[in-house]
Every structure is written in structure tokens, then in C-alpha cells.
Amino acid sequence: MIPIERDVLEGWRRVLRRKLGGVSLWTLKEYGRSVLIMESPDKESLTAMLLALIGHLRKMTRTTEEPMMNILCSYDDSGWRVIFFPRRKHRPEAYFKEGEERVLISPAAVDLGGLIITPLRQDFERVDAGMVEGIFQEVSLPVDELERVVDAL
Fold first, then answer.
1. How far, in Å, CA of 17 to CA of 14, rounded?
2. Cα→Cα distances 55→21, 23, 32, 61, 147, Å
3. For the whole model, what pTM was predicted?
4. 121 and 83 within one domain
5. CA 18 to CA 2: how far, in whole Å?
6. Would you state the pLDDT for residue 136?
7. Which of 22, 52, 56, 86 is the most buried (most CB within 10 A)?
8. Looking at the predicted structure, is the pLDDT value of residue 73 above 90?
9. Residue 7 pLDDT more than 90?
10. Residue range 32-62, pLDDT digits in tens
11. Do 147 and 77 reside in the same domain of the chain?
12. Residues 100 and 65 grouped into a single domain
């Protein structure tokens, strides 16, 4: 289990944004990055909501391509859960720097979920919470923009 799979179960952190067509839409407060949790016992309803979300995100970001995002999905006795991370950037600036300033962290779903992958030992040894928070904020869609997308659903 990666940290976000545990974090989405913490009642104090969950904020119900909407219920639409049998799908509950939640955000997480005090999480340091944009994340939308979609839950439903019905796979088809959840799939339709995910496709609608992607469509609204495409319009908002004014792209004809698939918008940048990372997704984790799971299923248990209570139903389906999609953990959706909307992105504004593929990689943080630190990834492109030269020399000692370069940090090879290119966060994807697992990283955004709280399990940071560092391919270089030197990056593992020097990364700290502040650096990770900065990277997450840099690559994530701002929370207010995610809220506008949810309101448009």
C-alpha cells in the first residue's frame, strides 16, 4: 500500500465535493497537491465520470490532446476508487538543472501517491520534505483549478 491509499481513508482529510450519478467526488485537505478521489460501487458510472472529468480538464487546459494526469485505481468490497492527480507540468524545473542542482525526480502516480522514486543515490540522500512539497506543487494543477473542473461536472 502506498501512502495515499491509506490517506484517502482518513475521515478528517476527506472533503466531499459532489455526488453525481452514483459517484462520490472527494478532495483531500492539507495534502500539498491536487488530488480528486472518485468512488462508486458501479464501474460504469465511475468510468463515465472519469471520462467526463478528463473532457472538462481538456477544455480547461485548452488542449486537444489527453490532458496531463496520473491515475491510481483500486477495487474492494465497497466498490471502485480512482485517485486522480491532474497535472500542469510533466517534470519539475530541478529535473532540467545542471550539475549538483539537478534532481532526477519525475513524479508519476506512485510518487504523487507518496512513494518517491529516486533513480540516483545522491538524490535519495539529499531529498527532504520541503523539496518534495515544492516538486508536487510545481507539477500539480492548482487546487482552485481542480475545483472549477469538479464544479463543471
1. 9
2. 17, 17, 25, 10, 15
3. 0.92
4. no
5. 25
6. 94
7. 86
8. yes
9. yes
10. 999 999 999 999 999 999 999 999 999 988 8
11. yes
12. no
